[in-house]
Amino acid sequence: AGRTNLKSPQDIQVYIVNTNFTLRWNYTGNDASVTFSAEYRWSEDFMTNETEWKELPGCQNVSHMECDFSSAITEYFDTHHVRVRAERKEEVSPWSRTFEMIPYVIAHIGPPGVELQSTNGVIKIKISPPEANQARKMWVADLGFKYNVVTWENSSNAEFRSQSIFPTDIIDDLAPDTTYCLKVQATLPLDSKEGLFSPIHCVKTTHKAVSDLLCATNVRVLALNMKFHLHWNNRYKQHVSYNVQYLIGYLKKLHDDYSEKWINVPGCENITDTQCNFSSIITATSGFHYLRVQAMNEYNKSCLSHEVKVDPLVTNEIGPPGVKLDISDVLLHIQISPPEGSDSEVIRDHYDLSYRLLYWKNSSNNEEEIKMKEIKQTLGTISDLTPSTLYCVKVQAFSEAYNKSSHFSKAECIKTPGDKMLPLIILAMFVTALIVVVLVALLLVFGVYQVYNKIKYVFFPSCQPPLNIEGFEGQLFSNPYLSTNEELIENCSIIETIVIEEVNQIDFKDYKHSKQSSRDSGNYSNDDDNSGSKASEDTLEKQTV
Q1: How many domains is the chain partitioned into structurally?
Q2: Long-range interactions of 260-267: CB distance < 8 A, separation 24+
Q3: Per UniProt, which keywords does this protein have (predicted)?
Q4: Would you say residue 3 lies in a domain?
Q5: End-to-end CA, the chain
Q6: What is the DSSP string of 372-405?
């Protein structure tokens, strides 16, 4: 019955910074004699026996609504359970809701250590990791930390500036004789964790010394197709020589002093030129480097320039690719090669290049449309070509991963072959026309020949009547002006003779015999002649009678 008089604690929370653990809760009662106790269990115990809870060290019979139990937790990647109850003498409340946690997941990164030094118009800063000099660490890999610094002038209208810095670094571009304040935050990008800011530190800048004319200025890197050159300007009017030095980038991530770890670039020692080829120290997988120029005069006085950062694949620029064109019946083939003079394997393997093709008809019409095509391979094709047309192509390489693109290559042009069907069509039309002409000519010749034969037959017949047959009783047996359908044919007939009187019969026979002889000689007559002959015979027979 006594338990019902005490309520259970509410809103159980665990707050972790580095390896510091704090348990917090809320309680609605006002009785000052109420205390609180907590229990915990972790994964191994939980798997073997769900009822086996242990007292949480540092959280027994506490009067406040929070307690520190940092000493109790040593396994930061295991699952833990925590619960709290209220107590008053012999009375206890029911246990609160169980809070489950994995310490590493919910832990916060603590503030880093910060040291400042103001010199020559800049602020030198040195940062120590959040758990420096601690035996127990939540964050084991100190090299995984990255640091952000926020700086501002210590004034009422301050503007905040945020930037990433190394554990040992310089903050410049500051006004002289001005108080600046800053705070630093450690982050773990791989775990998407952002830590707590350090306490605010303030420092006053000094005047920057007059720039030494001996120092190299405007130090810059020009890189194309993995060929790296460092350039700088010389303001010194007397003899000066230069040493180009580099520092491997990861050394700046360390919390150690790297000032003695700069190395001279081979081939760039004691030179008088204001440029240096440092490609020999750069590879695509070597990571980033820092370079600087050391100038020395004849009195062995030296001056160091500002440092420049070189991240090979980021700093490098991609040159235009090589292009070769070839043409087939219906396709234009485009062969793309890495930029001239480049390390083709590095360009191909690390930039994951794609290619942008621009092609157009090279004609006098300035309004010809320029077409674009993007491909991944080094061999592209273009279809739908117009025969006997000059096509021009230029190519640009680009990398989406590095947001880089080259200039377009020089335009290459090639002419497509003519249409092969047109000669065939022309040949077919010519052969057809020739056949038609030949047929028409043959018909004309045949027609002329037939007309010639008819005229020759009608006007110049090859057969003539015998000379002894010229006519009969004043009528001609042939007429040269007869038409072809009135062609003379040989007519033979038998004339029956009737003997009326014996005296006349003899004469008639003589006549008949004479006529028969004429017919046997091949005389020809038409129907009118036959009818005329018959009429003469009838007349003759009547006269005889």
Answers
A1: 4
A2: 262/292, 265/291
A3: Membrane, Transmembrane, Transmembrane helix
A4: no
A5: 189
A6: EEEESSSEEEE-SPPTT-EEEEEEEEEETTTTEE
Q: Rounded to an integer, what distance in angstroms lies between the CA atom of residue 508 and that of residue 238?
A: 165
Tokens 């057969």 found at: 463
Residue recorded with tokens 């603590």: 110
Question: Can you tell me the distance from the alpha carbon of 276 to that of 243, in angstroms, rounded to the nearest whole number?
Answer: 10
The SS3 call for residue 203 is strand
Choose the final residue of a domain: 181, 205, 229: 205
CB 69 within 8 A of CB 99: no
> Any idea what the Cα angle at residue 193 is, between residues 187 and 198, rounded to 5°?
45
The three-class DSSP label of residue 498 is coil
Sole residue written with tokens 């390489």: 397
Within a domain: residue 481? no
Q: Which domain holds residue 308?
A: 217-315
Its pTM surpasses 0.70: no
**pLDDT per position as a tens digit, 422-435:** 567 778 888 999 99
Q: How many CB atoms lie within 10 A of CB 133?
A: 7
Distance CA(332)–CA(383), nearest Å, equals: 7
| Helix and strand element counts for the chain (H, E) | 7, 34
Q: Is residue 394 part of a domain?
A: yes
CATH of the domain at 83: 2.60.40.10
Helices 527-544 and 502-520: crossing angle in degrees, nearest 10, is 160
Tens digits of residue pLDDT in 15-35: 999 999 999 999 987 788 899
